[in-house]
Amino acid sequence: MPSHWTGDQSTNQSECPPIGLESRVLTMWFSSFTVLTMYGFVPSECPPMGLETLKIDDFQLHASTMRRYGLGAHRGRLNIQAGLYDDDLYDGAWCAGRNDPLQWLEVDARRLTKFTGVITQGRSSLWSSDWVTSYKVLVSNDSHTWVTLKNGSQDLIFIGNKEKEIPVLNMFPVAAVARYIRVNPRSWFNRGSICMRVEILGCPMPDSQNYYHRRNEITTTDNLDFKHHSYKEMRHLMKVVNEMCPNITRIYNIGKSHSGQKLYAIEISDNPGEHEPGEPEFRYTAGSHGNEVLGRELLLLLMQFMCQEYLSGSPRIRHLVHETRIHLLPSVNPDGYDKALEVGSELSGWSLGRWSQDGVDIHHNFPDLNSILWEAETKKWIPRKMLNHHVPIPEWYQSKNSTVASETRALVSWMEKIPFVLGGNLQGGELVVTFPYDRTRSQGVSREQTPTPDDHVFRWLAFSYASTHRLMTDARRRVCHTEDFAKEDGTINGASWHTAAGSMNDFSYLHTNCFELSMYVGCDKFPHESELAEEWENNRESLLVFMEQVHRGIKGIVWDMQGRGIANATIQVEGIGHDIRTAADGDYWRLLNPGEYSITVRAEGYSASSKVCEVGYDIGATRCDFTVSRTNLSRIKEIMERYNKQPIRQPLRPPVRQLQARR
After folding, report:
1. Pairing mode, if any, of strands 325-329 and 281-286?
2. Torsional class of 463: left (φ above 0), alpha (ψ -120 to 50), beta (otherwise)
3. What is the Cα–Cα distance from 421 to 281, expressed in whole angstroms?
4. How confident is the model at residue 216 (pLDDT cuts 50, 70, 90)?
5. What is the spatial distance between Cα 151 and Cα 500, in angstroms, rounded to a whole number?
6. What is the largest CA-CA distance in the chain?
7. Which of 58, 188, 312, 414 qualifies as a FRET site for 136, CA 20 to 30 Å off?
8. What is the SS3 assignment for 466?
9. Helices in 249-345 by DSSP H: which ranges?
């Protein structure tokens, strides 16, 4: 028997030898469970049971003892994250109450299941070092009589972890069919204690009468490609969508990653490649953290879905495509994704592939414009010396020596080039929607409510996604890690969660017209392929509803007296200290909640113009156009420039006394 089953070295999936049994099924009956082995059986065919994704609920997890509630069996889930302090109610593992070989962590599958393997981690903690170095596995059908997996006549001892974060996979030499499974630690880090995070690999046996299976089963009717796509497969899929819907799609790239991979986007519009005056621009991005893979696959599914629905004549999708220019960028960090994909969905841990190839967190690699704006506000420079919008990028950030990823530079250029109105970046590892600001205003404070002038609009936008997600606002759902966001309607101000300078959301709001939010679309950053159909069902309606919000508020065109659009005119909303600007054709879109607003337009060389515009409750932006006239001074300057004339200087009149003396 290979050494990684007897306990003297660790293993990974690629090291597992073929079982090599005869072609017939070998069945070994024990008193309370059955072991099945089949010729040609591939262990990886059985997916994770769902400790990490929460498909296994807390009542299915049991333990011999626990150190305290925050380290109970319900916390023994792969990749679960701890709170900041070790005495947190939500801690980072199951930890036994005693350190002895009699401890165990148990999973009740609630039906007969073919168990094929176990993945383990140590405890998530900033302060403690705890992990299990070896363990046994036991199975049962009644939770009373237990049988240990064996190597011939000896108990199998599996090698565990060598540190607390990197997952270690052990496949069983023979699949075990039972209802219950236990992991029994036999040794642990000598300066730590018994603490584990676990995932079980298993295939449910057919049982149409099982209540729990029928209650939790989620199916989809969409005929989409539910799989993880490599970079090459992603490009091919985008090409297939483009060929299926050539009249409404266009593939382009916004730049390259550090290793030279192109950052591909697909545009979905009735006039691809062209900005239509009066039509808003929308974007979804995903994968800025390369190991947060679910968002990438959701966008690939979304482009397939929209193409199919458009061809089938769906009124909703056709209206969205005809009235909106949509951009989907599924992989901002393809280099990081490749690292995570190489080891697989369950073995990439919490951070492998998060950063770019040169070690940069792309999502937080943008210039910190918050500090610049807040300093100007403190010094009362606004609006005399500085505007409250389109805050310029500092010179140091644009230098070649600055620590800015090539992916970030590509994103900045893309955001400046296209007049986006609304955007969402898909993240992973939680179930919540966050909105700006992401940085706390008070120095040295890690959590603080820091609203933008458009806080009410951002809260509505966040709620529009969260409330239509299948799980985000469900008060009955279990928290992913440490925060119960369902109590806050599945949304949170970014800075009140944790402060982060230079986020994509803050930069987008302060440097462009675009309102950007982050959607954390699942507890599991890199779900198994078998979970993708259910995750699509969880997020599909939310993805569509959020896109439709780009048509909420007011829109219009700012004209001059000759009917020409005026670019870079400022749109001011009374009572909201954040302005936007018109695009190149003079068109604009201002996201607003229902109500009446006093709108003022200002443009250099033109007289200001104001009117009251009303926003209704129905989707569909209110049209609010402006026609402005030139000021007298600007007309004079224009005439002088046209005829190359200089101002006429009148001679000074002599004083009255001099005139009288001359007489």
Report:
1. parallel
2. alpha
3. 6
4. low
5. 51
6. 135
7. 58
8. helix
9. 294-311, 315-323, 334-343
Would you call the peptide bond into 252 cis, given omega within 30 degrees of 0 as the criterion? no
Report the Cα 276 to chain-centroid distance in Å: 29
Q: Which amino acid, residue 260?
A: G
Q: Name the one residue in this structure whose structure tokens are 């950052």.
A: 263
Mean pLDDT of the 616-642 span? 85
Q: What angle do CA 479, 109, 537 make, to 5 degrees?
A: 50
The Cα–Cα gap between 312 and 502 comes to 42
What mean pLDDT is predicted for residues 233-243?
98
List of residues 6+ apart from 381 with CB closer than 8 A: none
What is the distance, to the nearest Å, from the Cα of residue 111 to the centroid of all Cα atoms in its chain? 34
Beta bridge partners of 158: 135
Asked if residue 83 has pLDDT above 90, the reply is no
Which residues, other chains included, contact 400 with Cβ-Cβ below 8 Å and sequence gap of 6+?
A: none
What are the angstrom distances between the C-alpha of 593 and each of 434, 588, 614? 18, 16, 10
The answer to whether 162 and 107 are in contact (CB under 8 A) is: no
| Residue 632: per-residue pLDDT | 74
Global pTM exceeds 0.85: yes
Task: Give the helix ranges, DSSP H, for 222-354.
Answer: 231-244, 294-311, 315-323, 334-343
- Helices of type H across 424-531: 455-466, 494-497, 504-511
Query: Residue range 296-312: average pLDDT?
Result: 98
Closest alpha carbon to 535 in 431, 462, 461, 463: 431
Give dist(CA 527, CA 364) in Å, integer: 24
Q: What is the DSSP code string of 167-204?
A: -EEEEEEEEEEEEEEEEEEEEE-TTS--EEEEEEEEEE
Interval 331-346: pLDDT, tens = 999 999 999 999 988 8
Cβ neighbours of residue 383 under 8 Å, at least 6 residues apart?
none
Q: Are 615 and 595 in contact (CB under 8 A)?
A: yes
pLDDT at 67 over 50: yes
What is the C-alpha separation between 558 and 603, in angstroms, rounded?
9
Query: How far is C-alpha 528 from the chain's CA centre?
Result: 17
pLDDT value of residue 660: 56
Token code pair at residue 269: 């519009």
Q: What is the DSSP string of 103-133?
A: --EEEEEEEEEEEEEEEEE--B-SS----EE
Give yes or no for a contact between 394 and 562, defined as CB atoms under 8 angstroms apart: no
Distance CA 185, CA 169 (A): 15
Bridge partners of 202? 115
Q: Which amino acid is at 455?
A: D
Cβ atoms of 108 and 170 within 8 Å: the answer is: no
Which amino acid, 166? I
Give the torsion sign (CA, 392, 397, 400, 406): negative
